[in-house]
Amino acid sequence: MRRAAVVAVFLWALFPMPAAANAGLPLIFITLPAMAIALLPVAAIEAVVLRHLLAVTWWQAASTSLMANLLSTFIGTPIAWLAFFVVELVLGIPSGKLNLQLGPAANAILFAAWSGPTDQGYAWPIALSVMVLLLGFFYISVEFERHAAAQMLTTVEPQELRSAVFKANAITYVGLEIITLGWLLYGLLRTPTYS
Predict the structure, then answer these.
(1) Residue 109 near residue 129 (C-beta atoms within 8 A)
(2) Helix (H, G, I), strand (E, B) or coil at 25
(3) What does R_g of the chain's alpha carbons equal in angstroms?
């Protein structure tokens, strides 16, 4: 990861692009506060799932879920965002030099970490970018939480723990994606169409 960041910074410095006042928004400033707000409900849901799937007490399930979610939210989420940003730099430098004109949906998907300015201030591309970011956050969250849970629940078989953590995260991330899909659809419905 460190090598990728160094390469990305090198490429960024090697191929400077003109500065603009409408440089966009790093979506970590939207996603991290939202993930922090969702932390307690997510940890509670995941604790119920862990308690249901594993032979652990309620206290073990709740404390493990809370600690694992604290780690994945405040360490894992920024790491995943940084990985998306490195990919964005790698894709963005050539597309900027080639002057590729991508549509707002393609931009939202390919450049999810840093949402550029959208035509007439539409919010739906930001929601689409957040949906893409949530996919990456899910995978890193599973890994962080599996590792944290393994340290706390030493009597549970690793395969059983891996499966339970994956299922717990799948349930909560599907919920987060549904909420974000609602935001996306709301933004699309409010977007005027032109003939």
Answers:
(1) yes
(2) strand
(3) 19
**How many Å separate Cα 116 from the centre of its chain?**
17
- Chain CA centroid to CA 137, Å: 4
Q: Residue 27's closest CA among 111, 142, 140, 124? A: 111
Instruction: Tell me the per-residue pLDDT of 63-110, one tens digit each, with 9 for 90 and over.
Output: 999 999 999 999 999 999 999 999 988 887 777 667 777 788 888 888
Closest alpha carbon to 119 in 15, 14, 22:
22
3-state DSSP assignment of residue 17: coil
CB 133 within 8 A of CB 27: yes
Whole-angstrom Cα distance, residue 151 to residue 145? 10
- How many angstroms separate the CA atoms of 21 and 88, rounded? 19
Which residue, among 83, 41, 92, has the nearest Cα to 62 in the 3D structure? 41
DSSP secondary structure letters along 80-123: HHHHHHHHHHHHHHHHHHTT----HHHHHHHT-SEEPP-GGG-S
